[in-house]
Amino acid sequence: MSSIMSLADLLAQKKSPIVKKWCEVVVQTYPEGGQSFLKTKKNQFSNPVGHTIAEGIESIYDELLKGAKSDKIPLSIDNILRVRAVQDFFPSRAVDFVFGLKKVIRKELGKEILKEGISEEWAEFESRIDDLALLSFDVYMQCRQKVFDIRVSAVKNQSHKLLKMAGLAYDLPENYESPDYEGGLKEGQTHLSE
Known about the structure:
CATH topology: Globin-like
Order of helices and strands: HHHHHHH
Structural class: mainly alpha
Largest sheet: none
Low-confidence stretches: none
Shape: elongated
CATH class: Mainly Alpha
Radius of gyration: 26 Å
CATH architecture: Orthogonal Bundle
């Protein structure tokens, strides 16, 4: 009589091939030219993106296996999605790799999942993956907002510098809004230097 393993045991037993294939799912979302580079070099310094993906995927997988809410998952997701936010992935494309985990697990453990008792565990684990996808979307949108804010700030700074060079803008003193401030433009004056 064979004993039925739990889904957690199977997922732990098959961790290495599942994590490797899940990393491949992430890499496949990049343009073909970059895929071979991301696959071949995992060194943190020669390929920081590939290293971040591999490290993040393994950490996320480990935390999903634990089942409890983890502070490590948002950080690992952020590390992966921060790069994707800068690379202007569409939100759906940026987080699609999360759902790739379901496909990888089904291919690796499909027969075992169909065994009695494991299907309920699988449904619960799929729910964790869905929650991970929702978290990923939120994290991606926060990263995109940061990128947008940085770009807007850079444009504002550039515009201000150009206006200042043209003599059309100047820097205000720190206390110019204070009621005690006596500086400023006098009647008929258009620049502080007049």
